[in-house]
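protien #1 (seq + structre)
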Amino acid sequence: MTHELAAVGIDTFDEDVYRALLSRPAAVPGQLAVELGTSPARVTRALGRLHDRGLVGRLSGHRLRYAAIDPHHAVDALIRNRSAELDRVRAAATGLARLFEAAQHGDAEEVEIVQGSEALGRWFVRLQQEARDQVRTLDRPPYALTTTNPVEKTALEKGVVYRAVYAPEALEWPGVLDDIKHLVDRGEQARVLPGLRVKLALADHRLALMPLSLDLTDVRAAVIRPSALLDALVDYWQLCWHRATPLIGPAGTADEPAEQDKLLLSLLVSGLKDEAIARQLGWSVRTMRRRMSRLHEQLGASNRFQAGVIAAQRGWL
């Protein structure tokens, strides 16, 4: 048996039920089930679908009886509906074609994908050079090219505000903490946030650069221009910034701890292990723990969590 109604979206079994019903004035599902060699429940479900498509009607009365609708009217209606759907597809294709043509002519899109470490590095430099007021970053390893940022010093001197949120893992890389200290001395505002999983750079509210993975064997990044996606990334950065802990603060008063001890507190609340903290500060683990014990006494804290809370309340962090 051929099934011509498949072209208008009718299932082959449903068409068999419809053809069986066409051969009689009306029928109950059980009668059609016997003829088709299937269960009444399956036929009932098919009749329900056919009813929804306008091919059969349910007769009045207590018994569940159905009658076929004249195909000249019912099938014509299906054809008109399918034609309307195809017209919508054709209209959508026109819009897709415009997007394709814009891409071929180099028009800027809201999201652009760049590939390779060098392309990522060039875009990071360009983003900072195009920033007018501020650059905001989420920073974590691995690093495709280098851990240093030679552009930032110049931008800071021009008055561009830099605010950076670092993952604790970044502080374990050789030289990173010293670089951050130098940048903070020049005006960068630095915080640390355990659990940071993405890397991101924002230039004002106009441009974002976000690596799509942390796999250095396949470096790809998205360049995002003004859009709802850019708005969401700015909001996400703000959330991270508010949750993060200041990493290195400005010089304090005489009753505050020394600069190295404040840095020790920042590293402790960032989640770094004792060995990593000692390595970054150039101390032995024993020296680091002795300094921490002295800070606990000064703060009246019994553990590092309490020390971080009290230090933050005093404005040391």
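ok now protien #2
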Amino acid sequence: MSPAKAPASPVKAAGTPAERAAKSSAKASATPSAKTAKAAKPAKAESRLGMVRRARKINRELAEVYPYAHPELDFRNPFELLVATVLSAQTTDLRVNQTTPALFARYPTPEDLAAADPEEIEELIRPTGFFRAKTKSIMGLAAALRDDFGGEVPGRLDDLVKLPGVGRKTAFVVLGNAFGVPGITVDTHFMRLARRWKWTDQDDPVKIEAEIAEIFPKSEWTMLSHRVIFHGRRICHARRPACGACPIAPLCPAYGEGETDPEKAKKLLKYEKGGYPGQRLNPPPDYPGRPAPPAVGVSPGAGA
């Protein structure tokens, strides 16, 4: 009986993650049908340590893909970011960014907004949807800032979540991007990708936040949120992920749920990855894409 061959030492795959994904896809398509007909071997269960290492590698890869990741709401101060984040519920950041210039030009401070005519606010924010409920929320939080915090947005989670219309997600957006306080923003994109990547199997945002916080160092929480959300909006879509154009495909346990053909996948890319404008009218200087257009009839610099 001949001695068993020693296992080959692992060889690091050459090329970028996207190139490796493309090669993997091409290889799969060239496999004979007789072989593909065979039952696949059950995947080996991933250990907790293996998952953590893979998750952190995904974060490092995303940092290279999106070095310019940022909040996609236009704002100049904590108050504007707070109001814009509340308005962003159930709509796009682009729609909010097209709406807030006129709002902030007319009501630049909490005191101004708290004393406004509700009907005027409703008309200004109507494009964001649910404008009556949102008017009540932003006027209520403005009054609370005026009466309880001297007209300033507080920099503590416990204070922020007491404001009308402000939950943990909104609070962490404000804390992370206006105050530099680390936080994990579990929006629909983050929730979907965290589950797709097997970082968690929870479906409650607070539980997801807690589990993800145990995987990554606190210093990474805010930027991790931006990178994951960027990836969810641009490549890893809910219905048709662009798997064939995904730079982290080799690390994704859900690879193949979407389009794996590289050329077809490229057509699914959004925003700057697909050559289209982003969501901000006033993006940061290092953003590689084009600014979004203002709303019809609104000057690009209105409220700026």
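The radius of gyration is 23 Å.
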